[in-house]
């Protein structure tokens, strides 16, 4: 296998920019030396935890461990003590890597600590002979039905996903990526940090996401922006009063949204103001990336594009039989196969076995429809977003998008609740644009019925001050009462 980071082992000139976090930066030569120094501290380690703050030290630590062939367990600095304790017990890291002076919580108190110094110097190990199946990362999934599970991601999956995205997005070493994503998750760490390093390009991390930071970096030579829907919503809100932001977004080569569906009305507001379309992609911790809107394809709002090179994707019925009609209407569960998949859930052979079919397809739990030309549109999670009402299978996502097109709706979520007649009735949870004059049930039901179909209209509406969201901007529907 080739190196995960060819730009570090045999790539561009050593003085080429690699990483920048605020005012602190490293060239490729400096990154190789700093990572080499950290790698020298990892002799004998099998697995290390990384206290994954959005800082230069995190990127150096992960690069060092992967170059040394040591598995990385990224830790969310916002994790509570119980969750952190579970992750440490389950993954049993030998060390924790962190920035100097970082105060670590009690569960990490007994773990040997290595402080990462970006100014240190050492020889970077050559990782070109590593087994592609060796575990690179163990990333813990959010535990909606129990404690988080550790998805073991091999080196092969990282290389396959990043190379497939390079093909889809024409991503090269000339690109400069800007983002403000967390580094304990696949989006910010694998795509947003390892992605540029694999290409020989550079990444500028904002630290804290702000429209001003996006304007500054895109106006200063950055070519790509990665974000989550809440970030793009904030950009859409800021655009009318920020002509420099309009110009910066218009000049970007690629605007990419992920981790949750970007509402169609935010797509349209950004496109109307800038002339540029945000494109979406679809992935999970266990699969890394599955689909993407291609740079040379149609940026169709509400879709996540087509399967990436090397990824097989199918939709299946409830009985497991493949959906045979890709008509843009028939809903099925997404299943995928390919080199992008994780190996297993750590210490959970039962969960691993349950996640795969007998012939190796991974059950994503995501529901979608597929257009005749192959474009995939996610309609929600099987567990929380598939509503069976009046004999119809309805995806919550399309109703949410319809609600967001109503001028009186700022945010919206849709769930189902038991109904004696329909099986389930559609419930809308709405944050009104004007809390003093919220749109009522009759108005919103008519609005949805006129855009979609009468059986997709909400039967109940709840007005909220805000929707519960996690760190990645995803709405936590389990936190919404179902009455």
Mind explaining what this structure looks like?
The chain has 483 residues and is α/β, with parallel strands linked by helices. 28% of the residues lie in helices and 26% in strands. The protein is built from 13 helices and 25 strands. It has helices at 6-9, 28-39, 56-67, 81-91, 155-169, 186-199, 211-219, 229-238, 243-251, 264-274, 349-355, 396-404, 441-451, and strands spanning 17-21, 24-27, 47-51, 71-75, 95-98, 113-115, 135-140, 150-154, 176-179, 202-205, 224-227, 254-257, 279-284, 288-292, 306-307, 312-316, 332-337, 344-345, 362-370, 376-381, 386-389, 392-395, 409-419, 423-432, 460-463. The protein is globular, with a radius of gyration of 23 Å. It starts with 5 loop residues before the first helix and ends in a 20-residue tail after the last strand.
Secondary structure: elements and pairs:
Elements: H1 6-9, E1 17-21, E2 24-27, H2 28-39, E3 47-51, H3 56-67, E4 71-75, H4 81-91, E5 95-98, E6 113-115, E7 135-140, E8 150-154, H5 155-169, E9 176-179, H6 186-199, E10 202-205, H7 211-219, E11 224-227, H8 229-238, H9 243-251, E12 254-257, H10 264-274, E13 279-284, E14 288-292, E15 306-307, E16 312-316, E17 332-337, E18 344-345, H11 349-355, E19 362-370, E20 376-381, E21 386-389, E22 392-395, H12 396-404, E23 409-419, E24 423-432, H13 441-451, E25 460-463
Parallel strand pairs: 1-10, 3-4, 3-5, 5-6, 9-10, 9-11, 11-12, 12-13, 24-25
Antiparallel strand pairs: 1-2, 7-8, 8-18, 13-14, 14-15, 16-17, 17-19, 19-20, 21-22, 23-24
Helix pairs in contact: 2-3, 5-6, 7-9, 8-10
